[in-house]
Amino acid sequence: MSQAVIVIGGGLAGSEAAWQLAERGHQVRLYEMRPAKSTGAHVSDRLAELVCSNSLGSKLPDRATGILQREMRLLGSLLLTCAQEAAVPAGGALAVDRDRFAESVTARITGQGNIDVRREEVRAVPSNEPTIVATGPLTSPALATDIGKLTGEDYLYFYDAISPIVRADSIDMGRAFQANRYGRGDGDAGDYINCPMNRQEYERFVSALQNAETIELRDFERDDPNFFEGCVPIEQLAKRGRDTLAFGPMRPVGLINPHSGRRPHAVVQLRQDDLAGNLYNIVGFQTNIRWKQQKEILRMIPGLEDAEFLRMGQMHRNTFLNAPALLHPTMRFRSRDNLYFAGQITGVEGYVGNIATGFVAALNLSRQQRGLPAWIPPQDTMLGTLCHYVTHTEPKHFQPMKANLGILPPLTVKIKNKVERRRAYAERAEESMRLSLASLDDKLIAADPPAIPIEA
Ligand SMILES: Cc1cc2nc3c(=O)[nH]c(=O)nc-3n(C[C@H](O)[C@H](O)[C@H](O)COP(=O)(O)OP(=O)(O)OC[C@H]3O[C@@H](n4cnc5c(N)ncnc54)[C@H](O)[C@@H]3O)c2cc1C
């Protein structure tokens, strides 16, 4: 294979991508700007440095990250192998000795004869060479500006203000109700789930927000001059005045509570977040409150007393694309054939999810270079549903997503028991991945991969 391929960013996604390409015979130039230039969050010059937690999530075979880890092991992921080797005791989680993990990835990458690691910042997306951009949430400003030119500035975000996501079946519809403001919209029932509050409930809620403890921002996040513009957290709105929220994201106009026949004093609205309608995000509720307290406060909302949260609200610097508008589920950029993105910049969250998109981008770039058809992981696998989610959600409301059972397509048979339901999702995913791999014809992926031993 003559033309070298370029991978920009030696983090989780870029390291996995470079390895997979090199193992398939491609000459790879892997650019990593550290140690010459730092991100502000990384502290070493090693590849695949974990910037925060040392946990790659649950390894239990019926949990979302557990399913994804198993899939990545079926696919022959380098980083999952290194994680396994560097594992430390952590109950049901796959946690690693972070130094050993990064050292082991760095040693393997630098020892792979087909990979030329260059410690340089890439300031512009290469215009001709086949490329994977995997520069993560803290992509250097020069490169981010260039990516912005390619995507259009409206399609590249620099900051993440995420509102919480709730599992639909954990909302108490005896208290909440479905409706659109003024009855607008096509659906009979209404697109929004509304949680109504009377004055007393609202006052208590505002007081809790005013007194809530927030997560301290780090220096590299505080420096951002546009930090809170356009996405003021609810706790800050509450501090501006007791009625600010009732005139803002919690305004009740155009809504009548069918349970009481009256207009509520304030309303918390939830909007569908996935096509299947399993997930709802709380509209305009970006927040930086500490997670434990955040859960307690959100459960004060009528209808959310027993809510199951799939993602908590959070705020941090995060460079990511509007992937539904820009990327194909193969991680290919829609308007340039040999340009791929991988990792957190695609809007995927979580260490394993980022490793996984590195794999998908690399495999597809490799296949494209060899004239083979693209591989789209099946949608009922955790990897497939993640790639599908970030490339198919409504672009207007796109927010990053991590692996979770709620984004899998529903089972054909409804299973009430939670444990059995999780197991059914896991078994379906594994079977589907095995079937897909059997038809892939890739010499590095066994046609019939052996069963993976399940660790408790
Ligand atoms: C402060 C912080 C804490 C986090 N904590 C967690 C956590 O606990 N759990 C979790 O799952 N996720 C966490 N994340 C998200 C985390 O960043 C990702 O899960 C994961 O590291 C992303 O992998 P990646 O490969 O996309 O990016 P990274 O691992 O960040 O790798 C990107 C690499 O690209 C390099 N780079 C950037 N720009 C250039 C350039 N122009 N030229 C060359 N190289 C460049 C960077 O130096 C970096 O090494 C955190 C993120 C931040 C910022």
Give a verbal description of the structure.
- By secondary structure, the chain is α/β, with parallel strands linked by helices.
- It folds into 2 domains: 5-159 and 317-438, FAD/NAD(P)-binding domain; 165-312, Elongation Factor Tu (Ef-tu), domain 3 (Beta Barrel).
- The protein is 32% helix and 16% strand.
- It has 14 helices and 18 strands.
- The strands form 5 sheets. It has a 6-stranded antiparallel β-sheet. The protein has a 5-stranded parallel β-sheet with strand order 6-2-1-7-16, with helices on one face.
- β12 (266-272) and β13 (279-282) form a beta hairpin.
- α2 (64-74) packs parallel to α14.
- Residues 223-230 have low confidence and may be disordered.
- Flavin-adenine dinucleotide (FAD) is lined by residues 8-14, 31-34, 39, 41-42, 51-53, 121-122, 134-140, 143, 343-345, 350-351, 354.
